[in-house]
Design brief:
By secondary structure, the protein is of the alpha+beta class. It is built from 5 helices and 4 strands, in the order E-E-H-E-H-E-H-H-H. Helix content is 40%, strand content 12%.
């Protein structure tokens, strides 16, 4: 799973064993605590069945889940852009099950250290740290 904090474009990659809704919800609940609550107020998801357990996720994290309209990927623009960047590391069709969470974390660190035009050429990591400092 790809989680992108929209304001800072900070990326977290989450390894899941399957697309089973319970497995996905549990993984999201574990990772929700890694972002400050001020930055993690909602989650926008496509319409896949893997988020069927979204109500349990919301109860456990106090994070609202919104769903995109069918065939409207631009409603998740930050995530779609990030997925495009990830193709540089994992080409389409790559079996991601062979990669460890540590490897996914390393790729996320590289993306978070990459300057972005949309952030005035700051990195997501820099912007994330600035945002945390201003909310803390």
């Amino acid at each position: 799973m790809t989680l992108v904090e929209r304001q800072t474009r900070y990326v977290m990659l989450v390894k899941v064993a399957s697309k089973d809704s319970e497995v996905v919800a549990n993984a999201l609940i574990r990772h929700a605590c890694k972002l400050p609550q001020e930055l993690y107020k909602s989650l926008t998801w496509d319409r896949g069945t893997e988020m069927a357990d979204h109500k349990r996720f919301t109860v456990a994290t106090d994070v609202m889940v919104y769903f995109c309209d069918p065939q409207h990927p631009w409603q998740r623009g930050s995530n779609e852009n990030t997925n495009g960047l990830l193709r540089q590391y994992f080409p389409k069709g790559t079996d991601l099950s062979v990669y460890s969470q540590a490897r996914l974390n390393a790729v996320a660190r590289r993306l978070n250290g990459r300057p972005r035009k949309t952030l005035n050429y700051e990195t997501p990591a820099e912007r994330f740290q600035q945002t945390i400092a201003s909310t803390g």
